[in-house]
Design goal:
Elements lengths: L3 E6 L3 H12 L4 E7 L2 H11 L3 E4 L8 H12 L4 E5 L4 H10 L3 E4 L4 H12 L7 H14 L2 H11 L4 H8 L3 H15 L4 H10 L7
Parallel strand pairs: 1-2, 1-3, 3-4, 4-5
């Protein structure tokens, strides 16, 4: 069975050494390249074309989010897992929006990291519950109370006209709220907005 080929991008050599040792002990994966910054990372990716890039967000010269953008611009759908000390909602959101498929915090149990690697390599997203909650809290803080209220009614299947009547506002205002909600959640339609809201626990259906 072919092993998962992994590239590490982190400016801390001890962290890379630890990851090389841990990953190398697994029968289905191997580290094929290492880099300490984005410049080295781009060169290494061009040479090795790994299945997965594991990177830190805080790096010299170019930060991890910008590096994710560079990778995806040149190589398309690169599979990227962020491994960072920083777990604030803004950091997580920026990484996911840039194209990261997974986000884990340094210091987590090794089994969780290995699960994240296998999950992202399979083509799925890996966002642990505690990370997902921080992301949801950030999104919820961006949505106004009225927008959350409108989205909740959208989830119940209400039309714009019905939402307007229930909230005692004009239908045009509802349309503006819905447009803002779609933009903030970065989705294309109402159904996707509801799916994202429920997944991130912005609200629960009654």
């Amino acid at each position: 069975m072919a092993k998962l080929r992994i590239m590490l991008v982190d400016d801390h050599i001890l962290m890379r050494m630890g990851l090389v040792s841990a990953i190398g002990a697994e029968p289905d994966m191997q580290v094929v390249a290492e880099a300490e910054d984005a410049d080295e990372g781009m060169k290494a990716f061009r040479e090795h074309r790994p299945d997965l890039v594991i990177l830190d967000l805080r790096m010299p010269k170019v930060d991890g989010v910008e590096f994710i953008g560079q990778l995806r611009q040149e190589f398309g759908a690169v599979r990227i897992l962020v491994l960072s000390n920083y777990g604030a909602g803004d950091d997580i959101a920026r990484a996911v929006q840039a194209g990261a498929a997974g986000y884990v915090i340094k210091g987590m149990h090794l089994d969780q990291l290995l699960e994240a690697i296998r999950t992202v390599c399979s083509g799925a997203q890996y966002i642990p519950a505690e990370i997902s909650k921080r992301l949801a809290d950030r999104v919820q803080s961006q949505l106004s109370p009225r927008e959350v209220e409108v989205l909740h009614l959208v989830a119940k299947g209400r039309s714009n006209k019905e939402i307007a009547a229930e909230l005692h506002i004009v239908e045009g205002t509802v349309k503006i709220h819905v447009t803002n909600i779609l933009a903030k959640l970065q989705v294309a339609d109402r159904t996707q907005a509801v799916v994202v809201a429920l997944k991130r626990k912005i609200f629960q259906l009654d």
